[in-house]
Amino acid sequence: MSYILDALKKAEAERSLGAVPNLHAQPFVAAPSADRSAWRTPWSWATLAILAAAGALALLQPWRAPVPPGASAPMPVAPNPPLPQVATAPAAPAHTAPPVAAKETPPPPPARVKSVKPALAEKKPAPQPVAKVVKESKPAADTPAANEPPVVTLRELPESIQREVPRLTTNGYIYSSNKADRTVLINQKLLHEGDQIAPDLTLEKLTPSGMVLNYKGYRYRTSY
Questions:
Q1: What H or E segment, with its residue span, contains residue 48?
Q2: Residue numbers of the domain that contains 197
Q3: Choice among 20-29, 101-110, 190-199 with the minimum mean pLDDT
């Protein structure tokens, strides 16, 4: 260890020969070689550590760039003022409908499969002939012709015609849905539809409640 310290001191002394002495420069002092046991005390170890640290600082000092005298410390940059925070009202929570509990539908019962037995073919009776029933067609209801004058009562005829109409006496009548079977007995004379009762007086039609007569083109109805 002492040899290393001596070498460091010699190197430091050689470096400081051509340089201007400064505060960090240490004078070279040759250690006595006679008594080496004195360096082995605790104080000697502390001194060696201080010297080694000073030598290391001296070796690193030339590598530092000198600070120019006119250089000043950088101006502190003022931080930007914080922007004012705009307080926003919290959004009202949307009213949500409570969840509807889904009703569990019970599974449908399994369909029962019934075994179908093949039905025995039954002998069907032979169809019997059906007698055709022919219905007699009813005669169409008598509709008055469009050009025929309307049917009125005897009192609605002109007075001159009322005085000319002969007096009639109905003795009986037969009304049927068939025109050929309709008959009336007037003044003891059996008449059918279309027969002439008296001069200029004709029996036009028989109805369930009376008859329609025609006198000189004037049509009127009268009861039996």
A1: helix 42-60
A2: 167-223
A3: 20-29
Structural domain count of the chain: 1
Average pLDDT (29-55) is 64
Contact at 8 Å (CB) between 141 and 179? no
The DSSP code for 37 is: G
Name the β-bridge partners of 198: 201
Q: Which helix (H) or strand (E) holds 153?
A: strand 152-153
57-93 b/e with 16+ CB inside 10 Å = b? ebeeeeeeeeeeeeeeeeeeeeeeeeeeeeeeeeeee
Q: Is residue 139 part of a domain?
A: no
Whether 76 is covered by a domain: the verdict is no
Q: Is 219 contained in some domain?
A: yes
Q: Does the residue 186 lie in any domain?
A: yes
**Cα angle 74, 24, 34; round to 5:** 160
